[in-house]
Amino acid sequence: MSMRWYVVRRVLWAVVATFLILSITWGLLAITPNPAAEQMQFQAAASGGSAEAAEEAFEARRGLDRSPWVRYREYMLNMATLNWGWSQSRSQPVTDAIANAVPYTAIYSVPTTILSILVGLSIGLYSATHQYTRTDYAATFFAFFGYAIPNFWFGIILLLVFGVQLGWFPVVFDSDAPFLSLAMGRQLVLPVVVLVTGTIAGIMRYSRAEALEYVEAEFVKTAKAKGADGYRILTRHILRPAAVPLMTILVGDILGIFLAASYLVEVVFGIPGLGQLSYNAILAQDTSLVLGTTLIFTFVSVIGNLVQDVAYTVLDPRIDYGDR
Amino acid sequence: MLKLVAATGVAGLAGCSGNGSGGSEDAEPDVQGTYVSASSVDAQSLNWLTIADSTSGSYVTATLDGTWAITPDREIFPLWADYSTDDGRVYEIELREGLEWGAGYGEMTAEDWVYMIETVFQAEDNWSGYPNADDWFRTNPDSGQREPIPVEQTGTRTFEISLFEVDPSFPFKPILWRQQCIPKGILEKYAEDRDTEGLQQDEELNTLAYTGNLGPYTYENWERSASYTVTRNDDYYLRDVADVPDRFREAPYFDQEIIRVISEESTRLGALESGEVDSAGIPPDKATRFENLPNVDVNVTPQPYARVLIYNMRANGWEPFRSKAVRRALAFAVDKESVVENILRGYGQVAQTMQPKWSEWYDDSRVEAFGVGDRYGPEATRSRLESALSGTEYAYDGDRLVDGSGDGVTLTIYYDSGQPTEGTIAEFVAQEFSENAGIEVQPEAVSSSTFQSNYVRTSAPEGSEPEWTAGIFNGGPRDVATSAEPWDMCINLQFNTYPFTPASSKGFFERRGGINFYGYYPEEDIGELYERASSTTDDARRRELFGEAFGLISEEQPFGFLAMPSSVSGYAEDVRGYDEEFNTGWDSQTWYFA
């Protein structure tokens, strides 16, 4: 009962937090001078026209000639009623813009998340049981190399070597390729490689550290004495207790499996996904679209946190939030 | 001005990857292939009433020709319409026969045009937010007020524009050059109620459904941030027109055109190299590499933008800049040829005045050259600067210029933090000033939006009423109105020199010009020369007057004119149709694969 009450309270708080974040986002957008407007005024004056007329035209187009309170109210109501409005910078409804972008983000974020979790966990667990061996050092080096290298630079290098020089992969992302085809798979290899090498380090080191706690544990020694081989010990005896704290980082990742957008990778490879969408929306100060994408990311983060906390209690019955 | 760039057309952006097998000696090339160009940014909208960026403009121009084009020889090439005028003040526009709208809106008539101009462009409160509405208003000399230009329908396909004053270069201005139109049937749904949102979100306007036979291509698909596809229009009206050159006979010669949006420069260039796109813009420092590639042809075209060194003559700048002698002396300090050869890698031309050398308004005999040959160097600069500053507190202490209290003169120069080439130019200028004029210069990086708001906008201090004001950029007399932050020089603005319509740059050289944010007070009445030149219908006289104006400008040195960078594009080696002249994309619908 008190656990359920805890969850309810957290969900209500999620709603309040989202509302606050959206309001602050709207406020920041409203007070920021728009560089496009400034640019237009300058161009108008430079060609002998009127800067004021250019500014008025700009405000009329953007609906900025109404008072801030009116605009704020309209945006918040629209967000709440799921009528997210019209994106000025893409001239389509915000919902369409997001719906078009999410699949392109999903096609690289799903393989990335799955691969980095699987590979990261395996390498981490393997390193834990073979601590300080050459393989352990190699794995650590590989993980930190991927972590330290800037994604966008690595992506460009891979593209130049494998795309331009060797021609193994296409340089231009073809958005018309069907999603589950070989052609799509081929053009996703490089982005996924870049992203996986970047995220593996965290999972690998964390799982290694957690597993190490149990490698010398009593029950593991018992299992070894009973004749269990390395693999069985790893999966049936070490992984289970280690999974509990690991869940705290993994559940969040899994929830965001469709939305692990990386702006830098999308820019380098030309993938029209959520990362580019939200960044370009901010640059263009396209308020409706910025609020729409912010809402999604905020919601996923807040709910993700909640799910992670709840998963923790499910996996480890000793933990309970009931008395909070 | 945005149309100036938009008019280069979709085909002017990228290269091709078709497999050509047609005969190269035929009068008309074969229709084949898909022309793929690479763009660094996506369009914002296809609803051209709401857009003000050149990428969106180029997307639309592929499907809608517009009134007429301007050839590189500065001639009007009628597309949808032609004009005629007796006195250069009243213009009659005649639309061609057989121009059909799509989506069932019938034939294009003068009624569509007049309705659009009167209810949208000239609407009193600009309810639609049309960006170029101001173009359709001019000052009526009788009333002294800004009024809408009278437009009247005079026939089914003719209408008349009566300007208040003579303006012979009117057809060359973006107000009508390549101007598009919208069927009255669409506009009337929103004009009555002044429904801005409805107009912006209208589906037919956003999917170019109304383009009929009015352009070389028709809209196929727009995947935001990814690609824009148009297909060959089988009904293209220009094919049926008698008086066009043969190469338009079967235009366009591509089955499809696709614009791919690739924001990362390395990826874009990589795609050009691997043949996945047919054209892309190339930055000057990479051009040599592409010139050596067998599958890419590099094309260099002149651009009308001048890179200038602006001196701040307002109260928060450096006062000696106000002296013409000082500015002329400083013009000897910077080696312009070095800027072009070393910083722009040879892709540019030296600038001496507010017109490019190849323009018909540039009079070699009148323009004074600075910063080249023997009009450059430390002795030349110092001797002139010394005599120019002879009555002031500034003097030379050895090699260094010092002020009244013996401190060395240090000036600041601002450049755009996002443009490394500008940074190089700023550092070069600093170096030249130090060596040749004994003035220390400190380069400062600033973002373009910060620069715009804190350094370009000028106004009088709070509470005071300046004697006059000319807008947000020229807030008043230079001793009273200044920008929020002090600055001495800047290099981050490039100005369009308008080689087709030179009168448009008048505001830079007038004390009360709307763009005169640097506080320049001309000694000669340059503005008056501009006005006389724009109001005479005698071409030879106009050329003479503009020649004199630009000669005067080079004499007075309001800015340090440095260079006019060229535009470098790479095309796949089987693309044909482009050339090395300005505005080479004007007939891009006749480009083809060899």
Beta-strand share of residues of chain B:
15-25%
**How many helix segments of chain A?**
13
Average pLDDT level of chain A: 84
Q: Please estimate the helix content of chain A.
A: over 70%
Q: According to CATH, what is the class of the largest domain in chain A?
A: Mainly Alpha
CATH-defined superfamily of the largest domain in chain A = MetI-like
Structural class of chain A: mainly alpha
The CA-CA distance between the termini of chain B, in Å, is 33 Å
What global shape of chain B is seen?
Answer: globular
Structure explained in plain terms:
The complex is a heterodimer of chains A (324) and B (594). Chain A has helices at 2-31, 35-46, 51-62, 68-80, 94-129, 134-148, 151-165, 182-215, 218-225, 230-255, 263-269, 274-283, 287-315, and strands at residues 86-87, 92-93. Chain A has 324 residues and is mainly alpha-helical. In chain A, a hairpin with a 4-residue loop joins β1 and β2. The longest helix of chain A is centred in the middle third of the chain and has 36 residues, at 94-129. Chain A starts with a helix and ends in a 9-residue tail after the last helix. With 594 residues, chain B is an alpha+beta fold. In chain B, α14 (526-535) packs antiparallel against α15. At the A-B interface, α2, α3, α5, α7 and α11 of A face α5, α7 and α13 of B.
Q: How are the SSEs placed, and which strands pair?
A:
The complex is a heterodimer of chains A (324) and B (594).
Chain A: H1 2-31, H2 35-46, H3 51-62, H4 68-80, E1 86-87, E2 92-93, H5 94-129, H6 134-148, H7 151-165, H8 182-215, H9 218-225, H10 230-255, H11 263-269, H12 274-283, H13 287-315
Antiparallel strand pairs in A: 1-2
Helix pairs in contact in A: 1-4, 1-13, 2-3, 5-6, 5-8, 5-10, 5-13, 6-8, 7-8, 7-11, 8-10, 9-10, 10-13, 11-12, 12-13
Chain B: H1 2-6, E1 34-39, H2 54-61, E2 68-70, E3 76-78, E4 81-85, E5 90-95, H3 110-121, E6 137-139, E7 146-148, E8 151-153, E9 158-162, H4 184-191, H5 196-201, H6 203-206, E10 217-223, E11 227-232, E12 256-261, H7 265-274, E13 279-281, H8 284-291, E14 296-302, E15 305-311, H9 324-330, H10 336-343, E16 348-350, H11 378-388, E17 395-397, E18 400-402, E19 410-416, H12 420-437, E20 440-446, H13 448-456, E21 458-459, E22 482-483, E23 489-490, E24 494-496, H14 526-535, H15 539-556, E25 559-572, E26 575-576, E27 592-593
Parallel strand pairs in B: 1-12, 19-20, 19-23
Antiparallel strand pairs in B: 2-3, 4-5, 5-9, 6-7, 8-9, 10-11, 11-12, 13-25, 14-25, 15-23, 15-24, 15-25, 16-25, 17-18, 21-22, 26-27
Helix pairs in contact in B: 3-4, 9-11, 14-15
